[in-house]
From TrEMBL:
GO BP term, example: microtubule-based movement
Pfam families: Kinesin
Name by which UniProt lists this protein: Kinesin-like protein
GO terms for cellular component: cilium; microtubule
InterPro entries, per the entry: Kinesin-like_fam, Kinesin_motor_CS, Kinesin_motor_dom, Kinesin_motor_dom_sf, P-loop_NTPase
Subcellular localization: Cell projection, Cilium; Cytoplasm, Cytoskeleton
GO molecular function: ATP binding; microtubule binding; microtubule motor activity
Function summary: Plus end-directed microtubule-dependent motor protein that regulates the length of motile cilia by mediating depolymerization of microtubules at ciliary tips.
SMART domains: KISc
Lineage: Eukaryota, Metazoa, Chordata, Craniata, Vertebrata
Record: residues binding ATP: 65-72
Length: 313
């Protein structure tokens, strides 16, 4: 459960700096090394959330980290090594089939990206930019997004692969197919009991799976012009997310913290997942390369803060 981050520029014989070491140790719920398989990562991070979604809780999974550290691989995976999206939906459909005798269920999903602070529908890219609105119950809706109903994980895989091809990807110095946007897969499970009861109750559980864009330093990705602007937008929304995480993790402290969810579309969309009725997992990715020491350090600090959030379910 421990990550020890060594400073690559450190010289063990340097007496003057012996106590100024930048070596840091972090403790997390789970730590995986380079030998971990997709299955292992899925089972120990996400599998336990699926039962909650079926009983009407919300769940969110984030993939966070610097450009090129493997976020899209963890979430989407490849054909022979599917990632968390597919494994989670597979388990979800299996668990729903088990309750099919007494429950009627529908599963609808939408897949969108947030690029330069505008929302695009990845399943229907021709629909242009979409608006975030709030419905009377106070939950955030996206006006005009395509919702697909399906109970087959294979269909979903094809949809996601198709959607991912629509995603804004541009080469940077750090990564040939760098995702320049945050992708959000939103799965809504609605269940109604088959027995005719007086007060008909519905269970609604939402599962958000978020593949964030890489947090990046322009020096590392050597961005210029348009790429640089994108990078600024990416970092702005990640900063807004970081600010919300900071404020939430300090809640209950000496001063009442205001959590600014409206700073970016990303945090507004995920408002419930961060502070409200939701179980949230953040999977932070770091690269073992000594050149990305700073990125790794910032990522670990970010994830470590997220660990201190207490949500009231």
């Amino acid at each position: 459960q421990r990550v020890v981050l060594m400073d690559p520029s450190e010289d063990p014989g340097d007496i003057l700096r012996a106590n100024r070491s930048r070596e840091k140790a972090f403790v997390f719920d789970m730590v995986f090394d380079h030998r971990a398989t997709q299955e292992e990562v899925y089972v120990s991070t996400t599998k336990s959330l699926i039962g909650g979604v079926i009983s009407g809780y919300n769940a969110t999974i984030f993939a966070y980290g610097p450009t090129g550290a493997g976020k899209t691989y963890t979430m989407l995976g490849t054909d022979c090594e599917p990632g968390i999206y597919i494994r989670a939906l597979d388990d979800l459909f299996k668990a729903l089939e088990a309750t099919a005798e007494e429950m009627d269920y529908t599963v609808s999903m939408s897949y969108l990206e947030i690029y330069n602070e505008v929302i695009r529908d990845l399943l229907n890219p021709s629909s242009g930019f979409l608006d975030l609105r709030e419905d009377p119950r106070g939950s955030i809706q996206i006006a005009g997004i395509t919702e697909v109903s399906t109970t087959n994980a294979q269909e979903v895989m094809q949809l996601l692969m198709k959607g991912n091809k629509q995603r804004t990807q541009e080469p940077t110095a750090a990564n040939k197919t760098s995702s320049r946007s945050h992708a959000v897969l939103q799965v809504t499970v609605t269940q109604k009991s088959r027995r005719k009861v007086m007060g008909e109750e519905m269970l609604i559980g939402k599962l958000f799976m978020v593949d964030l864009a890489g947090s990046e330093r322009a020096a590392q990705t050597q961005n210029r012009g348009k790429r640089m602007k994108e990078g600024a937008h990416i970092n702005r929304s990640l900063l807004a997310l970081g600010n919300c995480i900071n404020a939430l993790s300090e809640k209950g402290g000496s001063r009442a913290q205001f959590v600014n969810f409206r700073d970016s579309k990303l945090t507004r969309l995920l408002k419930d997942s961060l502070g409200g009725n939701s179980r949230t997992v953040m999977i932070a990715h770091i690269s073992p390369a000594s050149t990305s020491f700073e990125e790794s350090r910032m990522t670990l600090i970010y994830a470590y803060r997220a660990k201190n959030i207490k949500t009231q379910v």
